[in-house]
Amino acid sequence: MKFLRCSAFILFLLAPAWAAPLLNTVKVAISNSTAQPRIAAQIVVSLASLRAVVPDLNAGSLIVTVSDGKGPAAQADELPSQVDDLDGDGKADELAFEIDLKPSQTRVVTVTYGEPDRIFRLRSEYLKHTNALFANKIEGLGWESEKNAWRLYFDPRNAIDLYGKRRDSLFLETLATPEYNYHADSPYGRDIYKVGDALGIGAVGAWVDGKLVKVSDVSARKWRVISSGPVRSIIEITYEGWKVGGRSVTLRSRIEQWAGDRGFYHSIKAEGTDGITFATGLPRKPQVPSFRSDPSQSSAWLATYGEQVVKPGPTATEELPGTNLGLAVVLLGQTATAEQDNLNYLLTFVPLSGSATWYVAAAWDEEGINNGMLIGSQRTGQTRISAGSHSAITTKDVFLSWLAQRGEELKSPAAVKVLSEAERP
Q: Looking at residue 294, what is its pLDDT?
């Protein structure tokens, strides 16, 4: 993982020269309780927890740094960060950044804030490593890290599809360009999957009387991009008047994509769903084996691995021989029942308090194979080494091993604790 370098003593030396109030800081401890390292651990700090200590904190002008040394001349790493307004009220709700952690390590990060003129003299420019958009060309919403790009058909299909990447990059804007053929082979990648009439890769539905009900019959469907930044992108979709199980349900679906991640988080919150069983899953492909967790596990998962990459071309339906794709869905924090129909492998569950979250991932065996290729006017510094290995996963065993490791990370995320009891200059 790349960090931006700065020196803590620079802040000390420059303060009197500017004849301005001192910058203030809050200390936050980030802890890895496991025996495994965490590369680019995904950290969210509630800004309410920071404002409980420093009510005057200006979330619009802050810097996040970490130093493992001591003394005024200790070298500090600036961590690219972003603040997000989740509810659209104009006030920041969360601070997000990524940090590397050794086994059983606690690192103390410093959140420095103050006058924007002073902060932005010191703060680096953060390159964008996620993206989210809505475009008619891709038939709905899209989101991406530099590893994979995804789209949700914003119509009664409501399915999630996949664009594979041969080069670590952001190219949703290209996919959404008029007349661009995203089905054709490219050094960057292409649309590699055929969803058809299936639920999609980690999309949401319901399981009613032994049948899958997609989020198709709704009174209204709305979308908004909450954030699209260097650390993460967040999309929210609201379905009003979903007709399911003899009821009219309001469902909110939130997609969260982190930098460098092969996967994304899909969270739902539903109203008026007592007694309704929900479902997520993966498309069922002929000749592609599936794998499932032990039913007793608290975080149920399912996966597929095999030749399920569609041939190039907008009308192609056959799988391309000789290349493999792994797909996975991990339901976080609750058990599920395994079901299936002719088109889908499913995890069915009753949301706890009407809410649930799952993690969705894809690993193409051509992932990143063109990372060393110079394409066009390549600019240095655009690709960030981030979560997970940049080596493509090329076998079923390696994929299942990676999924097991990722599952452990999801079950034991890094802990966040505000240490400061008051602001410090």
A: 83
Q: Is 206 exposed, middle or buried (0-12, 13-18, 19+ CB in 10 A)?
A: buried
Angle at the Cα of 355 from the Cα atoms of 408 and 217, rounded to 5 degrees: 120
Residue 6, pLDDT score: 53
Residue 383: the pLDDT is: 38
- CA-to-CA distance for 260 and 257, rounded, in angstroms? 9
Contact 234, 87 (CB under 8 A): no
How far does the chain reach from its first CA to its final CA, in angstroms? 29
By the 10 Å C-beta count (0-12 exposed, 13-18 middle, 19+ buried), 140 is classed as: buried
- Structural domains in the chain, CATH included, are 4-124+413-418 (2.60.40.1180), 131-383 (2.70.98)
pLDDT digits (tens, 9 = 90+) for 18-72: 445 678 999 999 999 999 999 999 999 999 999 999 998 999 999 999 988 666 6
Pairing of strands 277-283, 344-349: antiparallel
**Residue 82 near residue 230 (C-beta atoms within 8 A):** yes
Q: Which helix (H) or strand (E) holds 355?
A: strand 355-364
Q: How many angstroms separate the CA atoms of 264 and 219, rounded?
A: 27
How far out from the chain centre does Cα 388 lie?
13
Q: Mention every residue, 6+ apart, whose C-beta is less than 8 A from residue 90.
A: none
Q: Which residues, in sequence order, are CB contacts of 342 under 8 Å at separation 6+? A: 284
Rounded distance, CA 303 to CA 292, Å?
Answer: 6
- Is 130:143 a contact under the CB 8 Å cutoff? yes
- The span from the CA of 281 to the CA of 330, in Å, is 9
Has residue 391 got a pLDDT over 60?
yes
